[in-house]
Amino acid sequence: MGQAVDWLSEFSSSPGRLLVAPDAVTKQSAYARSGRAHFMYEGYNKGMSGMEAAKYAEMKYRETVLAGGKMYNEKNLFDQHIAEAKKAGLDWSKNPKEFERFVQKQAELKPFDPAIAEDAKRFAEISKVVTFTNDLDDISQGVSDIINKVPGLNFVIPFVKTPTNILKFGLARSPLGLAKDSYLLAFSKDFREQFTNARGMEANELRGRIATAVMFTSGVSYYLMNNEGAITGGGPQNVDEKATLIATGWQPYSLKIGDKYVSYQRLDPIATPLGILADLGEYSRLNPKEKEDDDMAAVFSACAMTLTYNLTDKSYLRGLNNLMKAVQDPATYLPKLVRDIGAGFVPNAVNQMQNTEHEIILRDARSFADAALKRIPGASDVVPPRRTILGDTIFRENPAGLLGPVNPFNISTAKNDPVAQEMSTLNGHFGMPSSKLHGLNDLDMREFKNAEGQQAYDRWMELSGTIKINGKTLKQALAVAVKSKEYQALPKKFEGQAVELKSPRIDIINRIIRGYRNQAQIKVLGEYPELYQKRNTVMQQKQAARLGKFENQQ
In the chain, how many domains are there? Predict the structure, then answer.
C-alpha cells in the first residue's frame, strides 16, 4: 500500500518536474538578453560604435556569470574558489591550511565586486519577472503563508506565486493599469520623478509598460467598437441566458475567426487585458441605459463588475472564488468546492489523454467521485453527459485530433440553428428542469439508475429531445413554431414600458418544451419501476398527510 501511495505521489508530481527544465532555460535566456541589452545601452551612452558596444556588452555580461553558468554573487564566487582548489588536487580533510591558503589566494586574485553583483541581481530579477516567479509583495506573501499553514487549504488554492505574478503583469498593461499609472503621473510627485529620471532597463520597463497599455487599450477598444462580437467577454451572468447563448456555438473569452470561436483564456498575461476590454464592451452593450445616463458611479460599477467577472473566470483563481462563495452560501457552493478538490487528485496530464477524439463529451459531475472519474480515460463514461435545455448531449470540439492533449485553444463553431438563435435572443427565460420529480426532495431522479447505469434524470432529458409527438421531435416542433407567421408577428420585447414585460414568444416555446418533457417523463416512469414505485409511495404519504391535517381541522 505504501509503495502504491509513493508511486501515485511520484506520478502526480511528474508534470511539475517536467516544467522545471524549460523554466530554467527561459530564465537563463532572459538573464543573458537583459544583461547584454543593459550593457549595450551603457556602451552607446559612452559614445561607442555598434561593434564596440557589442564587444563591451559581451565582456561586461561575462563578468556577471561564473563557471557553470551560475550568477555572480559573493556566495557563488566563494564556491567557485573552493571548486578550483579541489580541481588543483587539494583536499581540505588532509591538509586544511594549504586548502585555505589556496582559496585565500584565489580571493585576492579575483576579489568580490559589489557593482558586478548588483548588475547580476538586477538581471536575475528580470529573468524571474519573465518567468513569473518573482517574489510576492507583502499581501500576496501573507496569503501564501496562510495557505501553507492552514491544513487542506492548499487543495483549494494549490498555487499562489506564479498565478499572482501573471495576473499582476496582465493588469499592469490593462485599462486598469493604464488608469493607475495616469493617476500617479498626475498626482504623485515621486512617480513623475521616477518616470522622468529613469535610465537604462528601468526606463525601458516603465515607459514600455505604459506604452503597451496605451496601445493595447486604444487598439482593442477601437476594434471592438467597429467589430461587435469579434472578441467575446464572459457573456451574461444569468446561467440560463448564458446556456442558450452557448447553444448557438458562442464561446466566452474567444476571438471570432470566420464561423469559429477560438478561446484566448490560456494566453495569459495577454488574456487579462483583452478579457477586461471585452467585458467592458459587453457590459456597455447590455446596459445601454447606464451609458446614456453618463453617470460616473455607473462607469465605476461597470469596471468593478467586469474585473470581477474576468478574474473569477481564471482557472487558477477558481478555487479561491469557490471558497469565498462557499463561505457565503454553503448549501449551494460547498458541494462544488468539494468536487473541484476531488478533480484535483487526478493530474491534468491524465485528463488530457481523453482529448484525442474530434468531439469530446462534456460530463456533468455532481459528486466528489464523479469529479475525479470524469478526468480518467475509460472511467469517465460512468458520469452522465451534460445536456442542453433541449436534451442534446454537449460536446467540445477538438479539431486537433490526436494533438488535442497539447492544444491550448478551445474552439467552437457557430451553429446555423434558427431555434437556438431565437432562444438566445429571449434573455434566459428557459432553463433545465429540476431533478426532483414533482418538486419532491424524496424523488431525486439522479438517484435512480437502469441496468445500463443511466440515471433517470439523464434519460428523461435524453427522451425529451428524441421522443416524437405528431411525428416531430422537440427541435423539429420548435423550428416549425418559430418560423410560423403567427409567431413572427409577436414582439420579441415591449419597448417603452416602465416595467419589463415578457415576450409572448417565451410562453409559446416553454409550452412546447413542457409538452415534450411531460411525455418523456411518462416513458421514464415506465422504464424505471423503482422510481415509479417510490413516486406512488411518496404521493400516497403526501395525500394521507393532507387528509389527516384536514380531519384534524374538522
Answer: 2
User: In a structure prediction context, what are the per-residue pLDDT tens digits for the chain, which is 554 residues long?
Assistant: 445 444 544 544 555 555 566 778 888 898 999 899 889 988 988 999 889 999 999 999 999 999 888 999 999 999 999 999 999 999 988 888 999 999 999 999 999 999 999 999 999 998 888 888 888 887 778 877 887 887 777 777 777 888 888 888 888 888 888 888 888 888 898 888 888 877 767 777 888 888 889 998 899 988 988 888 899 998 888 888 999 999 999 999 999 999 999 999 888 888 888 988 898 888 777 666 555 545 555 555 666 666 666 666 666 667 777 777 777 777 777 777 778 777 777 887 788 888 888 889 999 988 888 888 888 888 888 899 999 999 999 999 998 888 888 888 899 999 999 999 999 998 768 999 999 998 888 899 999 999 999 999 999 999 999 999 999 999 999 999 999 999 999 988 765 554 467 889 999 999 999 999 999 999 999 999 999 999 999 988 888 877 765 455 55
What separation in angstroms does the CA of 90 have from each of 4, 76, 82, 254, 481? 46, 19, 10, 63, 93
Flag whether 521 is in a domain: yes
Write the DSSP symbol of residue 240.
H
Name the grid cell of 401.
485530433
Residue 119 burial by CB count (10 A; 0-12/13-18/19+): exposed, middle or buried?
buried
pTM value? 0.79
Position 332 in a domain = no
In a domain, 47, yes or no: yes
Question: Does 420 map to a domain?
Answer: no
